[in-house]
Every structure is written in structure tokens, then in C-alpha cells.
């Protein structure tokens, strides 16, 4: 991750964008995430269907890159270690959603069928403000 952070830092400094406000980056992350979401508006393709759709995959790559770039810009400008915060959060998420509760229960014809346990866990954690 350090390699990418260095690249982003240089990119920002070369353009005098290293003084951008965090709020503007948060807005940009959200806007790019919305552009990614828009690619799925009025569709309900499965993972396999999307992977086969080469045109859509190219568009997804572009929007995903936009989101990733703005996320890295924010972490760089705030002096955060993106790799470290990613791993810390992954550790928490793995504990929050134990694999034993989900593994083998995904139903591709009814993707929301394991949502009950997901929402139960999410609600419990929100009550604890985690
Ligand atoms: Mg975009």
C-alpha cells in the first residue's frame, strides 16, 4: 500500500492539491461510489453475469479506480496508514461477521436469504455504537 500512497502523495503535490479539504474528498468518494452504483441501476445481474459482461467490467474498473484514488488521497492527506487501517477494520469485520454463521448459506437465487443474521448482528453492533 505504501507504494500507492507515495504515488498519490506526489500526484497531489504536483498539482497543489495536497491542501484539499477532507470534506471535499469525502464528497468525491461518495460521488464516485454513486457512479459505480449507477452502473447497476435497473439491473440485477449475478456475479457470473457481470464477470461475463466485458463492457460493464471495463466501466466498473474505471469507477472503482476513482473511488480507490479518492480514498487514498484522503488517507494520505490525513497522514493515515491506509494498509494499517484496512487491516484493523478487516480484523474487526471478521469478528463481527463470523464465517461459521455465513459459510455455505449463500443462495444465488435468493441473495437476501441470509440477511436475517446479518441485520441482527448489525443492529447489535449499532446499539453498542461500533
Ligand atoms: Mg467516475
TrEMBL record:
Instruction: Give the source's domain of life in one word.
Output: Bacteria
Q: Which InterPro entries match?
A: dCTP_Pyrophosphatase, DCTPP
The scientific name of the source species is Candidatus Nomurabacteria bacterium GW2011_GWA2_43_15
Q: Where is the signal peptide?
A: none
* Protein's UniProt name: MazG nucleotide pyrophosphohydrolase
A GO molecular function annotation here is: nucleoside triphosphate diphosphatase activity
Task: Name the CDD domains for this protein.
Answer: NTP-PPase_RS21-C6_like
In this record, what's one Pfam family? MazG-like
Biological processes per GO annotation: nucleoside triphosphate catabolic process
